[in-house]
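To whoever picks this up:

The parser on our side crashed when reading a file containing two proteins. I've narrowed it down to the boundary between the first structure block and the second sequence. Both blocks are reproduced below exactly, byte for byte. First block:
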Amino acid sequence: MKAFMKTIRAAALAICGLALLSCSAGRNIHGTSIDGARYFVNITDVVPDVILEIRYYSTYNFVGSRIDGYEEPTALLTREAADSLKAVNDELRKMGYGLKIYDAYRPQKAVDHFVRWASDIADTSMKRSFYPDVDKSLLFEQQYIMEKSGHTRGSTVDLTLFRISDGKDVDMGATFDWFGVESHPDFCGNPQTGEYLGGSGSSRTITAEQFANRMILRRAMLRHGFKPLDSEWWHFTLSDEPFPDTYFTFPVRMLGNKL
């Protein structure tokens, strides 16, 4: 009987192991499966003093509900991206700033959730908060929603700054995930030179201080190996990302690996 029970236990462990591997897998453009979680870390293990505000675990996001694949309010990155983010954080803390993370690794099932939501034209419950000037039927055409995301490769992070002195967010002039030109890094200024150019020619604008705040974050990220996106001031990807052609599927939850 003991031998039989040992056999059953071993079989159960093997099945659990296969299930975990399946949940951790990613598949690159060549069809090769990769065990993703072993290459990822909890951001808070590497940068313990970041603030996490994981919008897709909450209902405060452009969809209005928790997004598929977000099982815990945590943030994951590849080890390489997390190490570079630590260097960013170390630099900014000397200036009196800390990092707040909105999103990092995003499983493919979350992206699929966005696609389903965008296809449901009638669901506009969060329009006023995130896309008041954009017709939902144009979200695909204007590339606010796409079927693949760099986040799913594991080295992209959405973030902002907070002041260490009082814990308050630094004013960036437009909220995270705002669908509109106000989110562009070059809105009212030149991000290459850091020059503020004034009014946007529309009813919305950002101040010189708000533009300068965006540049503080941008310059620190670029100095430590990240590249920006031309449509979102909060979005950065590690330039030398380790999985440039792999889209992972494992859910967002705390990893057990210790550094």
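<<boundary where parser fails>>
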Amino acid sequence: MQERFETFTVLINRISRNIRKIKNQEMAEYHLRSAHISCLYYLYTNPSTTATDLCGRCAEDKATISRALDYLEINGYLTRKSQKIKRYKSPLILTDKGTGVAKKIADKINDVLDAMNDGLTEPERVAFYRSLSMISERLETVSQTVKNKERDL
């Protein structure tokens, strides 16, 4: 049992650390961090997304997304469609600068995914993502159960 736990947590941590490392290495020249990269990618692949939408897509809290969007807006990567709508409901639009960097991000993501899938058959890849989704959902359920028990104490 202990070996299963150690293997699982070590592998998940290594995957997460390597994803962050790749993001940070690839975007260092632009002075972008992991949250910035996720925002640019999702805005590139889903134009006119709102900050609220990004929170869900990036699986980040409002504060993290808000800081990331402020940085991206101040540094000329994006703009808001309307200043009259509440900040979190206003569609976000990439500038030319943002679109150029976001395209490089999307291309790099595709390269990494291709390298990651090398050696996997399509059925193996589908099964892997299905398993990963189930693990994520079950961990979320366990996390909520623990949170509710703590609240009830």
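After patching the parser it read the second block fine. The chain has a mean pLDDT of 87. The chain has six helices and two strands.
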